[in-house]
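Q: What would this chain look like folded?
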Amino acid sequence: MHKILLVDDEQRMLDLLSLYLTPKGYHCIKMTSAEAALHYLETDKADLLLLDVMMPEMDGFTACSKIRKASDIPIIMLTARGEKADVVRGLKLGADDYISKPFDEAELTARIEAILRRKHGGAKTIECNGLMYKQDSFELSYGTRPVPLTPKEFSLLGLFLQHPNKVFTREHLLTSIWGYSAATEDRTVDSHVRNIREKLRKAGFPVDEYLTTVWGLGYKWVDKES
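A: My prediction, written as structure tokens:
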């Protein structure tokens, strides 16, 4: 479970962020000041830091600069200020990303996941009951049979394989694979999942035992060994 350090001087915002992220499987540590976060990181670790900019005593820019001198923890700056100069300043100080309030839940989680994938590398090669997914070489095979997928189908299957037993909503999948600003609809996901199933069935893989529909929510890849 990834640990996320939340830093904001507004308790209401901390509670809201935790409410969004905890059901996604993240362990949230809430801090109401940058100073508390700095002290925490001196002795403890986290996988990612969500850092508010506009805070009393020590603002997020100062905190980001101090943290970067001692840690490579991924940092997302979170603020109501969205001016280009502020974005550039935060990135130059070492922030990995920048999102403005009010934010969209799906966009926030997609950005967190993207940074964590880059940080931890993600699984490059995944094997599942004879199905071999090779991310770097863009290859999928079952036994000795190659399974041809489009780039979007390949990315979608990779997301499922890297997060077994996790339920993905259609909105989440659209944001993660097509981008939060893409003009696509839920049926786009359904169409791609249907294509993946058909291609894997044709190759002989028992896909219906693994890629399942969670009615009213979305899809998940079942880890039958867990």
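Residues 186-203 form the longest helix (18 residues).
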